[in-house]
Design goal:
This protein has 132 residues and is mainly alpha-helical. It is built from three helices and no strands. It has one domain. α1 crosses α2 and α2 packs antiparallel against α3.
Amino acid sequence: MEGGEQEHQLEHKVSSDTPLVIAVHVCSTKIPYKTVGKEYIADRPEIEREITNAIREAARSLRIYISRRVRMAYEMHRLSIFKKYLPKIAEFSAKLADREKPPDIRPLLRALTVRLDEVEKRVSKVYKIVEK
């Protein structure tokens, strides 16, 4: 199967040591040859083309799922950095402004958490699509 640039993009998101198996099984009571019987499922090239299209569709869904998971991991990492450093930044900015009390950073962290929840919902929606 030729994937071109899409295959290249998937390589970067999935490490090469990640196991991935694509198994295809075609079973029919009809044979794939016209000359042997009156009823046949299709010619071999047509069957191969349909299998290739099905694999491409599955690969697209997998790519979307993986990119959303990568995005969610990035957002979680970003949120952890904000949670770690924002209190210190608020404290130092209060000292620079000659204020006794640092500004409240909870609304900002809450907004970032809401954004993370939205990303999580999208990932779960894609996971349901991939399961089908």
